[in-house]
Amino acid sequence: MPPEVLVHCLKSPKIAESVQMQMILQSAPVLKNVKMSCMFTVPSGISKYICSFLYNTGIKMYCLCKGRQRDIVFLYREEQMEEYLTREENAEFLREYGYEGGDLNIYLHYLGLRISYYYNQRQEFPHETGVFLGYPLDDVKGFIENRGKNCSYIGYWKVYSDVDNAKKMFQLFDKAKDLAVAEFFSGMSVREIAC
After folding, report:
1. What burial class does residue 75 get, using C-beta atoms within 10 Å of its C-beta: 0-12 exposed, 13-18 middle, 19+ buried?
2. What is the mean pLDDT of the chain?
3. pTM of whole model > 0.85?
C-alpha cells in the first residue's frame, strides 16, 4: 500500500505521524542500516500499516505475535538476517531451541510461536530472540546461562563478552537514532529516512 493511502486508512495524519515516530525511535539503527533487525510493539491493528511506511526501503516486516491490545512486529533486512542466521555457530545454537531447516520464514514463524506461547504463559521468554536481533552469540548465551544477571555492561542488550565492541555498536545506534529523529522533524518520512 503506498504511503499516501496509508494516511487515509489511519484516518488521521496525527496517527500516521505517531506511528512513524514510534518506528523511528524503536528502529532507527535498522532504518539507517547499522543494525539488521529490531522488534517492538504497536497497538493492535496498526502492524498491517507498517509495511506501507517501509515501501521500497529494503526493510521487511513480520508480525511475530498478535494480541488483543498490542502486536509484536519484527523489522529486518533480509539478506543480512539470512547471512547471520546461517553462520554455523548461530544455526547450531538455534537448532538447540528447535529451529530447523535454515529458512528465514520458517525461523520467524517458529520464533513467533515461541513468543506467543510466552505471552500466553505457557513457557519462559525465548531468549534466543537475541540472535534474531543480531546480538553477539556470546552475549545471548551469557544472558541465558546467567539468567540475565552478572553482565559486564548494559546498553541495547546485556553484554557478557566484548564490552568495547558493544560500546562502539551502542554509540552507532545512538547516532543513528539522533540522525533519524532530526530527519523526521525536518519533514522526512520513514521511507526517506531509511538508507
Report:
1. buried
2. 91
3. yes
